[in-house]
């Protein structure tokens, strides 16, 4: 498995490195030009194996991953990458069914864009993911950690610790969602509200994606994900974060 740094956004003096995993030469070239014109570094891999070798050499700040690839497909690659790290993953898919796009999110992708895509929208999604992964942001040193039910969430380092002090790996989307809940405890949050808080205005995400990220988040913080006590579903309303939240 390719080495996946726990947090690739460490050298804020360098342009972020975007790895594009795409076997269509025309699309790959267009993406490279879009990334370089926007001030990013860009590398292309046409398969999972080539991506592995590239990540071993350079790492990545964000991965743009095509769903349909020869050999190991993008869904399998996404599952493997997410098991080994939390580098933001944006999936490109030409598949028309919502269930296929939901599958990518369930496997750990942070966002997706459907082909054919609008270059400005794609760029906005990439910048949003990089921003939320803390690239080039000026951390608010006054920000304090938030605690709930023995858990500790640090908005500056973007890390989550369980009641035993063990760091829990999270995707960018999962962290944003948990932070939104912690900032609005005891308040019923609609899916639309949560989308606005976690996608930073990006156009077009489907409401169902919130349900997928909530499900993944429950698996990480709930004692019983099938009978959730911390994140309650409110029928016809949305979600309710039940524990008291305090500033550490």
Characterization of this structure:
The protein folds into 2 domains: 116 residues, Response regulator (Rossmann fold); 102 residues, Orthogonal Bundle (Arc Repressor Mutant, subunit A). It is built from 8 helices and 13 strands. Helix content is 37%, strand content 19%. A 5-stranded parallel sheet has the order 2-1-3-4-5, with helices on both faces. Strands 9-8-7-6-13 form a 5-stranded antiparallel sheet, with helices on one face. A hairpin with a 3-residue loop joins strand 11 and strand 12. The termini are far apart. Helix 6 crosses helix 8. It is α/β, with parallel strands linked by helices. The protein is globular and about 50 Å long.
* Overall pLDDT score: 84
* Tally of alpha and pi helices: 8
Task: Assign an overall shape.
Answer: globular
CATH T-level topology of the largest domain:
Rossmann fold
Low-pLDDT stretches are 1-13, 135-142, 200-204
Q: Structural class of the secondary elements?
A: alpha/beta
Using DSSP, what is the number of strands?
13
| CATH homology-level superfamily of the largest domain | Response regulator
In the sheet with the most strands, the strands line up as: 2-1-3-4-5
Tell me the span between the first and last alpha carbons.
37 Å
Strand content: 15-25%
The top-level CATH class of the largest domain is Alpha Beta
Tell me the series of helices and strands, N- to C-terminal: EHEHEHEHEHEEEEHEHHEEE
CATH architecture of the largest domain: 3-Layer(aba) Sandwich
Q: What fraction, in percent, of the residue positions are helical?
A: 25-40%
Taken together, the total number of domains comes to: 2
Biggest sheet overview: 5 strands, parallel
Protein name: Regulatory protein VirG
GO molecular function: phosphorelay response regulator activity; transcription cis-regulatory region binding
Pfam families: Response_reg, Trans_reg_C
Keywords: Activator, Cytoplasm, DNA-binding, Phosphoprotein, Transcription, Transcription regulation, Two-component regulatory system
